[in-house]
């Protein structure tokens, strides 16, 4: 029993060590970017879109790891190299890959997935480490 409690304590401390405070979250962090594209089963379903946006807003507001975020929809493509087939785009920045890993496992993120996973048919994620300039 003591080992289990110690393990949970170490896990909690380890995860929160990479958590962001609200002051740090206002500035774009070029260390790590997490870019997600969602393709909905029915992109014209306005109730589904509202549910997605509400759940996503709640999730991002409650995330202890996401530093900055951008949520968007595709404009009509005017160039062949632009993909406008997705329904939503999410870009989230983190201070490190470890912080992004904490985000993947935090309850706010898991709740968002559970609430909205029936809406999408495809999700593609692009993660990138920043380079020094």
Average pLDDT rating? 82
CATH class value? Alpha Beta
Largest sheet: 4 strands, antiparallel
Q: Catalogue the unreliable spans.
A: 2-25
Describe, in plain words, how this protein is organized in 3D:
With 133 residues, the protein is α+β, with helices and mostly antiparallel strands. Helix content is 39%, strand content 23%. The chain has one domain (2-129): Alpha-Beta Plaits. The protein has a four-stranded antiparallel beta sheet with strand order 2-3-1-4. Helix 2 runs antiparallel to helix 4 (107-116). It is globular, with a radius of gyration of 17 Å. The protein starts with a helix and ends with a strand. The model is unreliable at 2-25 (pLDDT under 50).
Brief synopsis:
The chain is of the alpha+beta class and 133 residues long. The protein is built from 4 helices and 4 strands, in the order H-E-H-E-E-H-H-E. A 4-stranded antiparallel beta sheet has the order 2-3-1-4.
Show the helix and strand layout:
Elements: H1 2-17, E1 32-40, H2 46-62, E2 68-72, E3 88-94, H3 97-105, H4 107-116, E4 120-129
Antiparallel strand pairs: 1-3, 1-4, 2-3
